[in-house]
Amino acid sequence: MKIVKCNTQAELDAALKDPNIYPELVGNEWFDVSGLAQVTAYDSVQVRASDSAQVTAYGSAQVRASDSAQVTASGSAQVRASDSAQVTASGSAQVWAYGSAQVRASDSAQVTASKHVAVTKHGKKTRVKGGVQIDFKNPQNLDEWFDEYELKAKSGIVILYKAVGSDFRSERGGDYTPGTTPESDSWSTKEECGHGLHFCGTPYHALGISPNAKRFVGCPVRVDSIAHWPDGDYPQKVKAPRVVKPGCFEVDLDGNPIGGSK
């Protein structure tokens, strides 16, 4: 599928006519997204999503969702949701939810909800005001963590995910270029952060850890090498000493390999 950047509503409308194009909204304009459209919003874009539209929002994007729209928000994105809209928020995203909307919040997301909104909280840093609050219990062992993210190991190897920059480097400078097998030079299981390579169970959760990421990679890791902190500050991630062959490969936000890179 070809990714096309859209700066105006006219460009978006044209892109949505081609089923082989995935639109990325950029700039600071208002966009209307409806029907079965799927888009990603960056920068300071503002989006009105309705019907069954699906929007993934990064950076400082703002989304107003109604009907049965679905929104995934990270970074400093802001979402106002009503009707039966569904929102998944991570990073420092802010959500205002009304009606029968549903919100799933993690990391440092902040949610303000009216009394009938169901809000599921993942993590100690999530802040929720109002709504019907549900505290999610973190998986207490690696098997439960695998079940939570629907991960399946094969021959002792599992695919985990990393959010990286456009050059395939992590925020700390690690190189995850497709085909490489990066390895930690200071592996230790004594601490949750540092001293290892850090991964999440989905690209989306990896984005919550690194909200400025531009790309995602799948990484084969030996199951018996993984360290897990169920009650740590970042229960959505694990760490391992290395990536094993055949090495990293680029994926989209849903974990699908891009361009036959796997």
Written overview of the protein:
The protein has 262 residues and is mostly beta strands. The protein has two domains: 2-135, no CATH class; 142-251, no CATH class. The protein has three helices and 20 strands. The chain has helices at 9-16, 142-148, 203-209, and strands spanning 2-6, 21-25, 30-33, 38-41, 46-49, 54-57, 62-65, 70-73, 78-81, 86-89, 94-97, 102-106, 110-122, 127-135, 157-164, 197-200, 215-222, 227-228, 237-240, 249-251. Strands 1, 2, 3, 4, 5, 6, 7, 8, 9, 10, 11, 12, 13 and 14 form a 14-stranded parallel sheet that branches. Helix 1 (9-16) links the parallel strand 1 and strand 2. The radius of gyration is 18 Å and the shape is globular. The two termini are 16 Å apart. The mean pLDDT is 93.
The succession of helices and strands, N to C, reads: EHEEEEEEEEEEEEEHEEHEEEE
Q: Beta fraction of the residues? A: 35-45%
**SS class:** mainly beta
Helices, by number, come to 3
Low-confidence stretches: none
Q: Could you tell me the number of beta strands?
A: 20
Residue-averaged pLDDT? 93
What is the rounded distance between the termini? 16 Å
Overall outline: globular
Describe this structure in a few short sentences:
With 262 residues, the chain is mostly beta strands.
Task: Offer a few descriptive terms.
262 residues; 14-stranded parallel β-sheet; three-stranded antiparallel β-sheet; globular; 2 domains; single chain; mainly beta
